[in-house]
Structure formats: C-alpha cells, structure tokens
C-alpha cells in the first residue's frame, strides 16, 4: 500500500492508493503509480560510494565516486579494475566529508576535462578540475589538477552539500551546505556574502587563466552588491543531492532537514531572478527561526515535504532524478528520491493542476547516498554499503492508441496511428474488411516501445474500389491480443499494378496486377541484385516467397509486356 501526498505549496492531502501492475489497450486510462525495484548491478568492490555520473561521451560508462577519494568505473555492468581517480591524500574524510561528487565538462569527449567536489585537508569545500590521460579515457592525469574555487568551511565538519552538475546552458552548478552544526548558527544560508547554504553557478570555460572561472552575465545577483556574484539561489540547508530534468531542464533540489521535515524544492528552467528557499527561517513549510526574516510568502516553498519518522517519512533525504529513460514507460516523468535512514522511496510527478503528487514505497534498500543517470537515461542508485542498483519497475503502463486514421490515396490507403505509454507491445497488425465485422490481415508493423509517444504509418495497396474498414490487432510480448477501435475509408482508389504489404515484415511479398507479369527483381541500396522471380506472364494476386533479407530499403522492378515498373519497398525484420 502506498500513501499519496498531493502537495500544493503549504497543503498536503493524504490519500490511499494501491499500485497494481496491469496491461490495457484503449483510448485512455488512469496511469498506475510505478512499483519500483532496486536491482543489484555491482554488489562488491565499492567502498562508501556516494555519487554516480556518466561522461556523456558515448562510451556508456558509469563513474562511481567514493567518499575515500577514489573514482571507479562500471562498464557494461562490470566494475573495472583500478581507479579512474585516486586522491585520498587531498581530502579530509570521515562523517560527511570526503570526495562527494564529480561532473564531466560538456566537451569532455574532446577536451578531457572533468571536475570534482571534495572537502580538502582543512575541511574547506573545494572544486578542482582535472584532465584524463592523453590516449587513456579510463585514467585521470592527476598532475593536471587546477583548483577552481575554495569555499571556507572552518568551524563544523557537517553540511558540506556536495553535488556538481553542468546545466543545459553549459555552466557548472553546485549546492553547498550551510556550514554545519544545527540550526545554521552563523546564519550563512541567508547571508549573501557567504557561499554556504547556496546554489552556485559559474562559467568554467576559462581553461588557461586563474581562477579558471568567470561569472555568467545573467547570474541573478550580479548587480546586487550585498550578494556574491556566484550565487544562483539562497536559503538552502544541505542540498546533498539535486538534479536537472534532462528533458525540461527544470531543477529539483532535495534539501536535508533539521529536526522535523525533509523537503524537495523545484525551479522551472524558465524561472528568472534569484530565489530564496527559506532556510533557516523555515524548515519545510514550518517556521524554524524567523528572527530577522521576511514574510513567509517572500520565500519559495517546497513542493513536497515529509516528516521525521520511520514509517511514513524519514530523517535524511537523498535526492534523485526525473526518469527519462526508454525502458520503463511507467516510470517516465517521475522524480524519484529516497530517505537515507528509513529506506522509504518516493515517486513524485506534477499533476497538471499546479501541484505535485507523491507516492511512498517502503521496503527498498536503505542507506541510499546517491542516484545517477546513464547516458541513455537509465536510472541507478547507490547504497553507501557498497551496492550499485539499477532502478526498474514491475509496473506495465496502459497503452493508449491515439489518432487512428485511414486515408484514401492513389492506389492505396494510408493507415496512421500514434501511441502513448507503449512498453510491452510486440507488434501491430493492420486488419481490413468490407463489412466492419470480418477482417483479414493487411500487414504487420513491429512496435517501437520507446516512451512517451510513437508514430506509425502503414500503406495498404487496394485491389478493388470499395469501402474498407480497418482496425489494429495489438499483440504484447506475452502473446495477449487486444484490438483498437475501427475506422473506415469510404472512397478507395484501385491501382492496376502494385506491391503489398509495405513495409514487408514477414517472408512473403505479393504482386497484384491486372496485366501479365514476366518477372520481379529486387535490388539492394547499393545496386546489387538480391532476388529475382519469373512469373511467365501470370496476372492477378501473385505471391513472392522472399529469402532472408536485411532490414532496409529495396528497389523492386516489375517487367510487364510493354513496360517496366519500379517501386521502392521497405523490408523490416
């Protein structure tokens, strides 16, 4: 059983739902909440892992940041021997300190630059840039290290923040903690002259001249002398893990709470100007220490909060990502986060009415210290106990068939349809008939199964002039069959010679001709002849048994008595 929170700024409504996997084809249906599974990928060999990133270079490697100052590589699900980066002597470890995050420059594939976030031996927050070894993308050249920025963190060892990310704009973002202890005793989060308790945004394309970064001209406080130019947002306590939605570029910030509430803050990509999330004035939506603070409406309220308890809440939020992968349609568009202590996990989604709906799931692994995306959008989670999980779901989302239509053209009918939430479909079979009750197969189209939407078309060559009815026969991977609604075409236009079905998905092609046909020849895209069949001046519906041909576009030539007809056909295996 799950608990559904509908959060509209300061209002939380509790409902009960049951998430049950099912499969349905039709016009529309309510979307079931995905039931998550944390599937172990690497179960040994990692030491206190805290972050997962990819290089965005097409290699599909996962880089695992370990708190002890080392970075490991996972390739094709296998932990590779050796370290990508090994700088334990440069860090202060223990507790919340250590090597906490890394990010690869958008141009990493050519410039080899990456950045790391750690606490140095003095306990200060430090951003350092490295390059990989020339000719070896699996090893850092530690001699290339250049300190980009050091933020004093002199008094307490906790609340170091710790997530680096490049934004859609190419700038480097990172969230810092408030400086530690409890209750932000130095009030760093609301102090514009401190970089603690902030979201920072800098341009790191100044590769050759210290301090190796500049201030983006559109940073929100560049004209405010009382606020540091590097600051992008204020009022954060300890944004340990936060992320960008790779599709919308919206920002999701999970801010670890003090003693009562954990929160998720949200900022759209279109938001301009500096924002203040309210700590230490407010913890979640509750007043904490409002001395010297403005009215609550002056601060950006969280879109989701949960209380400190071990059943319906937790004690330390670990922010995740909005799932944008292609494998699990049921997870698509959900922001996924966990609590480090209770092990509870939430899936959160905008509800289209200005609010956010969230569902809790218990029983998943605890001590989740970080989430990360693969290049293809697959989502992973890390337990600080040393396990890398792939986040998947057992929920099959209902498939919706939209815009199913048939249009009469010159000698064929064009059948088009669009699907939403397609995940478990094997293929679509276009069926036709003359009375709307009895149907025959016109051809098959293999399913794409990439969320959120897919578009299809099919050409049905017509041997007769008549009204025709069409429907889709939909077969899923378990062999279950369902049907779409029926559409009709009142005026079809017959053609005297044509090939069907198009595309060819089986082993047979048909020639229809009201004139004698001598032969058919198929040519590959490179002009090579790959098949020929003699008909010896037969006419009518002529079957052609094809050999195995690779998926692609082919040229078909039909020899009639007085002419040669050339057509393109598509073979899809």
Radius of gyration: 30 Å
Rounded to the nearest angstrom, the distance between the terminal CA atoms is: 43 Å
- CATH topology of the largest domain, which one? Neuraminidase
Number of domains: 3
Kindly state the percentage of residues in helix. Answer: under 10%
Number of helices: 1
Give the strand order, joined by hyphens, for the main sheet.
2-1-28-27-26-25
State the fourth-level CATH superfamily of the largest domain: TolB, C-terminal domain
In short:
The protein is mainly beta. Helix content is 1%, strand content 49%.
Give a structural overview.
The protein is an all-beta fold. It has 3 domains: 2-393, Neuraminidase (6 Propeller), CATH 2.120.10; 398-495, Immunoglobulins (Immunoglobulin-like, Sandwich); 496-573, Sandwich (Immunoglobulin-like), CATH 2.60.40. The protein contains 1 helix and 44 strands. The protein is elongated.
Features:
single chain, 573 residues, Neuraminidase, Immunoglobulin-like, 3 domains, 49% strand, elongated, disordered N terminus
How do the helices and strands line up, and which of them pair or pack?
Elements: E1 2-8, E2 11-17, E3 25-26, E4 36-42, E5 49-54, E6 62-66, E7 70-75, E8 78-79, E9 85-86, E10 99-104, H1 108-111, E11 113-119, E12 125-133, E13 136-151, E14 163-166, E15 172-175, E16 199-202, E17 231-234, E18 241-244, E19 251-255, E20 261-267, E21 275-276, E22 282-283, E23 286-287, E24 304-307, E25 317-322, E26 335-339, E27 345-350, E28 356-361, E29 368-373, E30 379-383, E31 387-393, E32 399-408, E33 412-420, E34 425-433, E35 440-446, E36 453-461, E37 468-476, E38 481-483, E39 487-489, E40 497-500, E41 508-523, E42 529-545, E43 552-560, E44 564-571
Parallel strand pairs: 3-32, 17-21
Antiparallel strand pairs: 1-2, 1-28, 4-31, 5-6, 6-7, 7-8, 7-9, 10-11, 11-12, 12-13, 14-15, 15-16, 16-17, 18-19, 19-20, 20-24, 22-23, 25-26, 26-27, 27-28, 29-30, 30-31, 32-33, 33-36, 34-35, 34-37, 37-38, 37-39, 40-41, 41-42, 41-43, 43-44
